[in-house]
Amino acid sequence: MTSSLRPVKSIGWRDARHVRRAALDPKLPAVQQRLWRSWLRAFTDKAPAAGLTGALLLFGLSLTPSLLPRTWQVQGVVSGVSAAVGYGLGAALHAAVRRVKPNRPSAARARGGLLAILVATIVAIGWVAAHVFWLVDVRRLMGIERNLALYMIAVPVVAVFTTYVLVVAGRLVRSAFGAIERLLSRRLPRRWAIAILGLAALPLAVTIVDVMIAGKVFGSLDKAYLAADSSLDDTVPVPTTTLRSGGPGSLISWNTLGRQGRHFVAGGPNAAALEAFNGAAALEPIRVYAGLGSAGTPAERARLAVAELERTGAFSRRALVVITTTGTGWVDPHGIDPVEYLYNGDTAAVAIQYSYLPSWFVMLTNQDLSKEAGRALFQQVRARWEQIPEPSRPELLLYGESLGVFGSEAMFADPETIGESTDGVLWVGPPRASRLWSHFTSRRNPSSPVWQPVYGNGDRVRFGWDGESLSQPGGDWPRPRVVYLQQGSDPITWWSSDLLFGRPDWMRQPRSPGVSERMFFVPIATFLQTTLDLLVSTDVPEGHGHRFGTAQAEAWAAILEPPGWTPQDTRRLVAALAS
Known about the structure:
The protein is of the alpha/beta class. The protein folds into 3 domains: about 1-175, no CATH class; about 190-230; about 240-485 and about 550-579, no CATH class. It has 21 helices and 7 strands. Helix 4 packs parallel to helix 6 (about 105-140).
């Protein structure tokens, strides 16, 4: 093989034409000719080494540590998209340099390109090995035991396929623009043709995005979620009690409640279950819900819900819980069932729907919907509540989860008014945009970590991830009590544009028990990784990510502490809810 390469070396390796000659030299064996052709395609004009190097480097960055583990399908697509973007950036940089400093590609530059790709390949392989190591650590923290053999094989395969599809699509687009440029160049100077094409590219891209993404993708999502919200599930029974919306005598039709509303009013413990748990005669809990089809506006739905509370006798109960739902109208059973157990059914809970779309979609498109609905319901419930003589009023409680926290906080002008308006608040999994949460967190005691801040003396607002973490020695906790449940591995709470270039407080020491000590900050990459974690925030075991589960029962027990209730009762309740 060495002797057959001598004629090529004698040429001097000064021009890429020598590489082409070698690729076509009939004196060389067919195998060597194919190798030369591969080198020619990979490291000269048609596919610059910068593109392949960029693809390998961004592939490696896509494997940097994140808060949550992902499936091989998700990670493969993510890594493939990253590699395709890296290829495009590298190729664009290569083209820009060539335009500024035109130079015919030489064999020496081809060698340099080969060296760059070899180095990037080694780095990418190192990232893959480190990624598996990090993934094992994150899964250990979350108690996930899975075979990683399929993961290690499938991720690169999916990534390569995704990269190939996107690169081919990009080349087709580039070819189309090149054809248009040549067509325009026949009638106009080439610079004018390029300028016109450049000016037309932006509105064309905006139109494509608007039509394909906003029009098609978002439109399809809207139709799918609307159909799911409107569909009647035969497995969800229509209430037979007058104490539930949609049941006998209800002012609200069962068909207008929406999918999540029907699950809410049909769910929860009944009087028999409560009596069996508490060992005493129980009341049937009241649940009221007004869906999007029940009335036209949030204010009208709130008025209808208050009228339904009146009908059911809710204002004579011991506790009344005002709920701000998530984007789809969902109410977490683990967030409401515990109150009914704690008060043995002497409760009422009320919520209204403001959307049938996922919370992330509402947050992107119209987050004020949550604020408007939360404010309308609370104000009208409280106005009626204030008409009741003070000794006879029920305890007025407030509950919100995820986007429900964002909307629920809107009822208060400042932190001090929370205690003046309620008898207890539980806010679960607050998004980073939550105004009051940001206020408390930014003004925490400097010695407390951001994942469990201490605000003031902890005598009003407390943060934790379960009942035990809410205990703060050295100080009373007078009522009314406000609790934020948050978890160190929840990307919904910690995602922020600040992650682009600044190391976040939640990655500093000491870290939350749910965050790997091996996770480190990489500008831009950490932001993208946390953004992708949003997609899998609920695909993890309870107690991690955005899944709070029975920790809400412990929080409610700490907030309410009804007479005679003991820590043993809380443990029994957690076990009952878990089963």
